[in-house]
Amino acid sequence: MASRLPTVPRFVFTIFEPLSLLAGWAGATLNPAWFVAEQTSASTAASIDANARLVALQLGNTYGLVFLIASAVLYTTSEISVVRNYLVACWIADISHVYVCYHVLGWDSFVDVAAWNSMTWGNVGVTAMLCLTRTAYFLGLFGPDVPAAAPKKLH
């Protein structure tokens, strides 16, 4: 289970990341117009059409789903291989998420970190940090996983 992860990845994946998923869910679900308008720092949309609202609400639902899956995997399984496989899936999604942001923002906006708004920081900065943390974990840079406790003998 996630308690077997080294300290830094355990904090990042069981506390920080779930909270960021809840923040994504809240932003997209509670205020879809704001959420859509903030996707790029150049956006200025006071209102959104039904299509954009639907996509924002669907994305909010997806954030909520990933939060629930993360909670289920990281807090219930006793198999470290299940946790690692979950983290591999997230690592792949991190890479594609940052790439999609790059593709839509374009090179100039993507590298103009000073012009990023909070949403770009979340989409690119936080996702890149999560990806790098997963990479470091896979490479063993945080140390080994904590060994499983030996079963207690009954007397």
Helix fraction, binned, reads over 70%
Beta-strand content bin: under 5%
Biggest sheet, in brief?
A: none
Mean pLDDT: 93
> Which descriptor suits the 3D outline?
elongated
User: What is the straight-line distance between the termini?
Assistant: 27 Å
Structural class of the helix and strand makeup? mainly alpha
Give the low-pLDDT segments. none
Total beta strand runs: 0
Write the layout of secondary structure elements.
Blueprint: H1 7-30, H2 32-37, H3 50-76, H4 80-111, H5 118-138
Could you provide a short overview of the structure?
With 155 residues, this protein is mainly α. Helix content is 71%, strand content 0%.
Description:
The protein has one domain. Helices cover 71% and strands 0% of the residues. It has helices spanning 7-30, 32-37, 50-76, 80-111, 118-138. Keywords: Membrane, Transmembrane, Transmembrane helix. InterPro entries: DUF7704. The chain crosses the membrane at residues 12-35, 55-74, 86-105, 125-143. Residues 2-144 form the DUF7704 domain.
Top keywords for this entry?
155 residues, mainly alpha, 5 helices, 0% strand
